[in-house]
Every structure is written in structure tokens, then in C-alpha cells.
Amino acid sequence: MQELENLMKNDDLGIERLALIGGGKMGRALIDGITSAGVVAESSIVVVEPDSGARQWWTKHHPQCPVVDSIAESIAGAEVVLLAVKPDVVPSAIGQGGDRWPGRLLLSVAAGVTLQQLSSWLCSTRVARVMPNTPCLVGAGATAYCFADGVTAVDRRRTSGLLSAVGIAVEVAEKQMDAVTGLSGSGPAYVCVIIEALADGGVAAGLPRDLAMRLATQTVLGTARMVAETNRHPAELKDAVASPGGTTIAGLRALEQNGLRSALIEAVVAAAQRSRELC
Q1: pLDDT digits (tens, 9 = 90+) for 177-236
Q2: Own/partner long-range contacts of 115-124 (Cβ < 8 Å, ≥24 apart)
Q3: What DSSP string runs through 194-213?
Q4: Residue 6: pLDDT band by 50, 70, 90 thresholds?
């Protein structure tokens, strides 16, 4: 309890050493956000990454982060370990840590790997499952997380603090993680298709490609901000644009006739189901 009270008095999370296992795109995005926010000092982070090209990226962009080969070496003394490897690599990565896992918090971003599996392999229940998304790269991520039974109050605060550095972070029940994967985890791909389609529509209507893409991108960005910042329901904002007999309602009618709403719903459900199948 005293440790938690001490943390609450300070802006930092009291993390003297954080280990990142897997220095790919998601690991990079999370560490970029964490260090930019000043949550953990760059010199306090050690990275395990075997790929030579990826190691060069870390040397260039985070020169104060040591990059090592040994997982066991990286987690020694680390309060928090961020596991950012593909799901099929998780058992091997944990195995390479040997008996050093107890006594530290593990945050796993591997889709479909359950808390029960992680706890069994680790022989520890200080575990969290994390589902970030690619907008973490620009500090605008949507991340969900859930905990195993053995996490402490300090673990919870550290998890929230680390993930909030790259966007919004929300705690959910583990049974909701597949739905999160289908929505916010896969959602950036759906939105990219929407932006591309809007731009294609602009080109079809007579706009130059570069201008159509700029307008489509800004329209999606601005609308998302408007929904987030006004707290008004999207339907209310939609109705405010759609004048009787006007251009917008004609476009909305075309969307309904072509099943956009249904297609997006089915995309989320299909991705969530695939996430369940990965378990």
C-alpha cells in the first residue's frame, strides 16, 4: 500500500527497468509513445530483438535503449515486461526466460493468447492481456486490456499509465477481448478502406487523386474528432448534415442500398470470430 501511495504522489510510474521482447512495429509504437510522454526513461528500457534490420532501427531512433539477444538477461531486474511477439512465438519466448518471470508484471500483446495460457507458462498470475492498434504509432491508439487474478494495485496503475501514453486505454473483461480485436484492433484497416473508397468516389466525380485523398482523409479525421469531443451521438451529427431532399441524404440512401452499415458490422463480427479461433 505504501508503494502505491508513493506512486500516486509522483507523475512517474516508478518503473526503473522495462523489458520489451519483440522490437517490431507495435513494440516500436508503444515505446515511442511511452518515452515521448516521459512515462519511462529511454535508458530504463531494454529491448530483445534478433533481426539485424530491426536492431539498426532501435540504434538509430532509441540509442539509449540497449538491444540484447537474451530474454533471460533482459527481464532480470525489470518490474514490467512487454511481450510484443506473434502468438505462435509466445511459448518459446516465455520458455527462454526460464524461472525469472515471477515477481514482475507481464503485458502481452499477442492476439488470442489467454490469461490462463500465459499464467500457466509463466507460473505467475501477474499478467495482463493487451490489445493495442496501429494508431499508437501517432499517439492516437485505442487499447484495451484485462488482468489475471495476481496483479497488484501498482500493476494496474502501471498498465494504465503505460498504455495511456499512446492514446486511450480501457480495462475490459477477458471475454470481451475478441470483440475488441474485431473492432479497434482490426478497425484501422476498415477505416483505411473507407478513406480509399471516399477518395475513389471523389476521383470518379472529377477531382484530382491527390486532392481527393487529402479531402477524404481530413473528413474522416475531423468527423472522428467531432464525435469524440462533442459527445454527441453519430446519428445526431449525421442528421445535422442531411437536409431534406439534399445531397447528403441522397448519398446516405446510396450507402444504405449498398449495405455499408451491414458490411462494417459483419467485418467486426468476422474478425472477432477469427480471434476466438486463434486461441
Answers
A1: 999 999 999 999 999 999 999 999 999 999 999 999 999 999 999 999 999 999 999 999
A2: 115/146, 115/147, 115/148, 115/174, 117/90, 118/90, 118/94, 118/148, 119/148, 119/150, 121/90, 121/91, 121/94, 121/95, 122/94, 123/99, 124/150
A3: HHHHHHHHHHHTT--HHHHH
A4: very low
Q: How many residues does the chain have?
A: 279
Tell the burial category of 177 from Cβ atoms under 10 Å away from its Cβ (0-12, 13-18, 19+): buried
| Cα 157 to Cα 130: distance, rounded to the nearest angstrom | 14
Residues facing residue 80 across a β-bridge: 18, 105
Say if strands 141-147 and 127-131 run parallel, antiparallel, or are unpaired: antiparallel
E strands present in the chain: 18-21, 45-48, 67-68, 80-83, 105-108, 127-131, 141-147, 167-171
